[in-house]
Amino acid sequence: MSTQSTSPSGDAKFNVCRFLRLPQLCSTCVAFSLVADMGTLRGAIGNWSMSFWCVCFAMTFIIALVECCRHPSSFPFFWCNISVTYACYAALICLSASIIYSITYVHFMPYGPNWDRAIAATAFSCIASMLYVIEVAGMRAWYELKEIFFYVHTVRALLKVLETFVAGVIFAFLSNTSLYLHQPALEWCVAVYSICFIPAAVVLLLGLAEWKYMPPRPFSIFQLVLSLLSVLLYISALVLWPLYQFSEEFGGQPQRPSDGDCRDELTYDMCAWDQRLAVAVLTAANLLVYVADLGYWARQVSVGTEDQPRDSQEVYSPNSDIL
Q1: Helical packing angle, 77-104 and 43-69, nearest 10°
Q2: Cα–Cα dist 85/208, whole Å
Q3: Burial of 113 from C-beta contacts in 10 A (0-12 / 13-18 / 19+)
Q4: MARVEL domain location, by residue (predicted)?
Q5: Which of 75, 179, 283, 297 could join 224 via S-S bond, C-beta 3.0 to 4.6 A?
Q6: Tens digit of pLDDT for each residue in 101-126?
Q7: What is the pTM (predicted TM-score) of this model?
């Protein structure tokens, strides 16, 4: 079934560019500039956070440039879904960078010019996160929703965004291969994260590409099976990762050491024990998301429906009500 060939209004695009894009660019630019000005004192955690802010700045700049250069009538559904989905990820990225940077690095910094820069960078990162949230929440008001279907506003899309984002943060911690190498049970956990991430990312991309007119019931059953498999795999990871990382019987370390990179003072790398704990917590969090996803698709199969764009369910008249 075809969709209506419509696009966001010119006024809506102008409002987004004028009232959101510029503050987003400024806040992310200031955040990474302040940390970059700290030089070698920013450490690995500062470099990690700065790279996140740089990515958000670059992507926001590209999106703003495209929106300003292209005529409103040339905006397809795909581009609208991409920009809103990016805003979801950017909000989560900036929020995560703010939390991790503040509790693992800024918290241990001595008072001084660098501490002021770090606090200011964290504040601007939080501001950027709020601006991206405002963009996602306000998109319904800024665009003609009676004519445009925003895939990312559906429950299934938001769950996929959360699943892929949490997995991405887990992969960032797992860049320290010493956490799991030479231990088959822990290597299995890493495989679980990868196995579950790939289909979630594929389904999200297919939704953004508007490949949404599949037969509803077969697609719902497929998603139900996929979600059930992901839940079972994550349960195994949630059992094995803490068991082999924190149980002395399996060679783990139950308590946080007070020496090395885990001492309670400023260090330039995140404590390995903290990384293990972060992966365990994120595994539990992503398991909850997958359980919610499983419950959603179980309901779709039992009811026999799933989220559909309104123009696939009814024909709009010029005076149709907006959701």
Answers
A1: 160
A2: 8
A3: exposed
A4: 12-144, 151-302
A5: 297
A6: 888 777 777 788 888 888 999 999 99
A7: 0.81
